[in-house]
Prior knowledge:
Layout: H1 13-43, H2 61-72, H3 81-95, H4 99-107, H5 115-145, H6 159-170, H7 172-175, H8 179-206, H9 214-244, H10 253-264, H11 273-306
Helix pairs in contact: 1-2, 1-3, 1-11, 3-5, 4-5, 5-6, 5-8, 8-9, 9-10, 9-11
Pfam family, one: Mito_carr
Subcellular location: Mitochondrion inner membrane
Protein name: Dicarboxylate carrier UCP2
Amino acid sequence: xxxxxxxxxxxxxxxxxFGAGTAACIADLVTFPLDTAKVRLQIQxxxxxAEGVAGTKYRGVFGTINTMVRTEGPRSxxxxxxxxxxxxxxxxxxxxxxxxxxxxxxxxxxxxxxxxSRLMAGCTTGAMAVAFAQPTxxxxxxxxxxxxxxxxxxxxxxxxxxxxxxxxxxxxxxxxKGCLPNITRNAIVNCAELVTYDIIKELILKYNxxxxxxxxxxxxxxxxxxxxxxxxxxxxxxKTRFMNSSPGQYSSAINCAxxxxxxxxxxxxYKGFMPSFLRLGSWNIVMFVSYEQIKRAMTRAQQxxxxxx
Length: 309
């Protein structure tokens, strides 16, 4: 995003768009079990188990993963992976890949971007991404939240079955459930994630603390992941609860938040905080490091293709 050397060819918008989606898919493949554990911890306590089915108690990140592997098998950690990858290709490509272009739009092509311009760019691409990817997010959360019961019954049999079932039972609106909290969450996440990464990386390069290479990208990504988790966790919990809820359980996202506050107290908004941090921290590191390397590789390939001799 910043720190191009004079000899470097700036990556095109298409390179950033494709690179961001690919890097996000790589990050999802690596960190998906942590995300599933986070979802299970976040929805714990929202509903009573069905009659005759013992309720599963999850304790901590690795305790949740261990319980899921023991009771549902290792594949349960990757429930919703297909929808997750679909989400990242459509979602991250927009919110991350178009961030620099949107930043230039708000600064009118100026090299110096103010914090306000960066925040506006982050909010804009975050909100735009939800418009494309909300159905994939709903399906991903539903898959991650579903627990296989004793007779092997599952809420959804496949990704396409989930899309069809939700549309049939809840209408097309069901696929856009939680859109408002998701727009809020992603505006916050995008600002915290991209703007923090942008600023940390810029400062590291400005004061010559590191060169524009892997250690610099790793440090900036770790800082971005931590800041994002602190800011976005409450909205993320409400989004997960609301998107996973049965029809009529909550009248709105705000009603969901108020119900959580009155029934479970303020700490409910930070349920699954440790897996959120482990997931967002590791996801940011894998994604940003991959993104920077993919951008460079694709730009070099484009340069050699355009100038073969």
